[in-house]
Amino acid sequence: MNGHRFHIDVIGKTKIWFTISGIMILIGIIAMFVNGFNWGIDFTGGTIMEFKIGKPFDTKDIIKILNDYKVKDYQIQKIGTKGDHVSIKTSPISDQTRIAIIKEIEKKYNLTESDLIMSQQVGPSLGAEIRSGMILALVVASLVMLTYLGIRFNFEMSLAAVIGLLHNVFILISVYAVFRITVDSPFIAALLTVFSYSLHDTIVIFDRIRDNLKVMRRADYAEVANVSVNQTLVRSINVVLTVLIMLLLMYFLGPKALKDFALPLLIGITWGAYSSIFISTPLWVLIKNREKRKKASVKAAKA
């Protein structure tokens, strides 16, 4: 039962793993209070313009037009099934500048007024709604995961798993705060994706722990956890590497829209694999050992 390729003492180094994560999250919290987040246009408000170009085009031409009008912050994205539409989001600009930019783009691509699909100002209230929606989604998802894992495994495992998921969220947010990476809609989508995907490895490890508890009856929780982690380590590495290779290709070879989505996934899934092994599993051992000591003290008190 104990035959496996790796013999890593994960539980014996619990303090090291917790310290690494604690330091990263602490640095992130300090960065949040000192510098705040680099909120994207979706959160700060601005101008949205959408055109039907109707033919292949180079976004560099649109970037040149925006630069000519001294627009500092902007996001340009090809959309539509054929990629012949363009969505332009900019920081707040005057109506005069917006109209001038529209005319320049229409002139560049020989467009008519009917090719202007959208042109409107967006206030920061939309960003507040997105933030509150994200927090609500994380709270609801945490409760659902806690309930589901509690039914499938037990409360101790479900609590350790959900704390691991929240750990991934805090790490991802911390990285964005420290390096001042733009927080926009793709980040929110990636954050929620990471939250759900990170659970996969944890379930695999906990499933093996549950099986090993039945056959390793004389072993303590730390030994059972170590054996279970080492038995599933090759599988975990292979699965994570497969996903990370695809994400790296998306980030380095894909368009900007894919890069904005791939970057938080790269960070989140990497730390998700880390937390399944080095956070959630040791946390389960701590909870079980605490529960064991509590039962022993109660038994001693009755005696």
UniProtKB/TrEMBL annotation:
Location, primary (coarse class): membrane
Alphabetized SUPFAM superfamilies for the sequence: Multidrug efflux transporter AcrB transmembrane domain (SSF82866)
GO cellular component term, pick one: plasma membrane
Molecular function per GO: protein-transporting ATPase activity
Protein export membrane protein SecD/SecF C-terminal domain ranges (all copies): 113-289
Location within or outside the cell: Cell membrane
Family annotation (Pfam families): Sec_GG (PF07549), SecD_SecF_C (PF02355)
Membrane topology, as annotated: Multi-pass membrane protein
Membrane spanning stretches: 16-34, 133-151, 158-179, 185-206, 233-253, 265-287
Annotated InterPro entries: SecD/SecF_arch_bac, SecD/SecF_bac, SecD/SecF_CS, SecD_SecF_C, SecD_SecF_C_bact, SecF_bac
Alphabetical GO biological process terms: intracellular protein transmembrane transport; protein targeting; protein transport by the Sec complex
UniProt keyword list: Cell membrane, Membrane, Protein transport, Translocation, Transmembrane, Transmembrane helix, Transport
Subunit structure and binding partners: Forms a complex with SecD. Part of the essential Sec protein translocation apparatus which comprises SecA, SecYEG and auxiliary proteins SecDF. Other proteins may also be involved.
The family this protein is said to belong to: Belongs to the SecD/SecF family. SecF subfamily.
Function: Part of the Sec protein translocase complex. Interacts with the SecYEG preprotein conducting channel. SecDF uses the proton motive force (PMF) to complete protein translocation after the ATP-dependent function of SecA.
PANTHER family: PROTEIN TRANSLOCASE SUBUNIT SECF, PROTEIN-EXPORT MEMBRANE PROTEIN SEC
HAMAP family attached to this UniProt entry: SecF_B (MF_01464_B)
Protein name, per record: Protein-export membrane protein SecF
